[in-house]
């Protein structure tokens, strides 16, 4: 029976240096040979998922932007973006808090480097990897194409509370550690993306498996029929999963797939 497997990227498929264990590559190859569907299920939006590094692993589809985008065999199946007027209001609000933030869409990421602390290497690193696909927020306010966003460097706790109070009616704020917050429109998460692609492809729920390590994986770990958290992942992910595997670089994916008899 063909299974559908959904994998987070960061902290699950690869580590902070984008190193993928050989055992993970072997597991993907063996599962493809058995005919299983392999999906990326990431908080990254589609433009921020490097095809050349990940698609050769054998993925059939990509769920991106915390469930706001889905594709199968290169064909876009769904995309939900934030209406222009709403994202303009969000942008004005984040500016009023003096937050450092990144707006994320299907085709572009938007960031104003000066909003980040001078010591932060993140904007330059992102610019190096994204090139022309990274645009400034300033100057593009009338053409923002965004499905989710992130904010951090809110130095005052009061500003963090204000952000949550104002955005809570329309958005889910996911705390990723420290003051880093991933913010997704209400009604969308990795589980809803899995539901939507499984409905379109007629994949039975009992044949779904998810693999993750962080707080933005909780919905899919709780939703799929079977789920595994990385041994070096966040405790919340371990609590949400059915099975806790070894750390990423200690053959975590291979051992999880072996545990479920997928190899």
Question: Layout of SSEs?
Answer:
Elements (H helix, E strand, L loop, with lengths): L3 E4 L14 H12 L3 E5 L9 H4 L6 E4 L4 E4 L2 E5 L4 H13 L3 E5 L4 E3 L10 H9 L3 E2 L12 E5 L4 H11 L3 E5 L5 E5 L4 H12 L6 E5 L5 H6 L2 E4 L5 H6 L2 E2 L7 H8 L4
Parallel strand pairs: 1-2, 1-12, 2-3, 7-8, 12-13, 13-14
Antiparallel strand pairs: 3-4, 4-5, 6-7, 6-9, 9-11, 10-11
Helix pairs in contact: 1-9
Instruction: Give the strand order, joined by hyphens, for the main sheet.
Output: 5-4-3-2-1-12-13-14
Output mean pLDDT.
Answer: 95
Helices and strands, in order, run as EHEHEEEHEEHEEHEEHEHEHEH
> Uncertain runs with pLDDT below 50, 5 residues or more?
none
Tally of DSSP helical segments? 9
- How would you characterize the largest beta sheet? 8 strands, mixed
What multimeric state do the chains show?
A: single chain
Helix content: 25-40%
Structural class computed from helices and strand pairing: alpha/beta
Distance between the termini: 13 Å
In angstroms, what is the radius of gyration?
18 Å
Shape: globular
Instruction: Assess the beta-strand content as a share of residues.
Output: 15-25%
Give the number of DSSP strands: 14
How does this model look, in words?
With 263 residues, this protein is an alpha/beta fold. The protein is 31% helix and 22% strand. The protein has an eight-stranded mixed β-sheet. The model has no long low-confidence stretch (mean pLDDT 95).
């Amino acid at each position: 029976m063909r299974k559908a497997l959904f994998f987070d990227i960061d902290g699950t498929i690869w580590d902070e240096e984008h190193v993928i264990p050989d055992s993970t590559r072997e597991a993907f190859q063996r599962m493809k040979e058995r005919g299983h569907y392999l999906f990326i299920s990431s908080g990254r939006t589609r433009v921020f998922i490097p095809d050349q590094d990940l698609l050769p692993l054998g993925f059939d589809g990509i769920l991106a932007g915390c469930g706001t985008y889905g594709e199968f065999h290169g064909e876009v199946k769904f995309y939900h973006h934030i209406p222009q007027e709403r994202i303009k209001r969000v942008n004005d609000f984040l500016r009023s808090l003096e937050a450092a933030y990144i707006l994320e869409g299907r085709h572009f990421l938007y960031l104003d480097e000066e909003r980040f602390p001078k010591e932060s290497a993140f904007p330059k690193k992102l610019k190096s990897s994204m090139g022309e696909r990274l645009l400034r927020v300033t100057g593009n306010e009338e053409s923002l194409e965004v499905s989710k966003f992130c904010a951090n460097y809110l130095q005052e706790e009061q500003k963090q509370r204000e952000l949550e109070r104002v955005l809570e009616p329309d958005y889910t704020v996911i705390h990723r550690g420290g003051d880093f917050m991933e913010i997704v429109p209400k009604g969308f998460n990795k589980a809803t993306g899995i539901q939507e692609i499984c409905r379109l492809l007629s994949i039975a729920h009992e044949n779904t498996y998810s693999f993750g390590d962080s707080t933005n994986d909780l919905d899919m770990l709780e939703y799929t029929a079977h789920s595994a958290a990385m041994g070096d992942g966040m405790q919340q992910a371990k609590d949400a999963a059915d099975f806790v595997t070894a750390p990423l670089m200690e053959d975590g994916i291979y051992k999880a797939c072996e545990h479920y008899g997928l190899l």
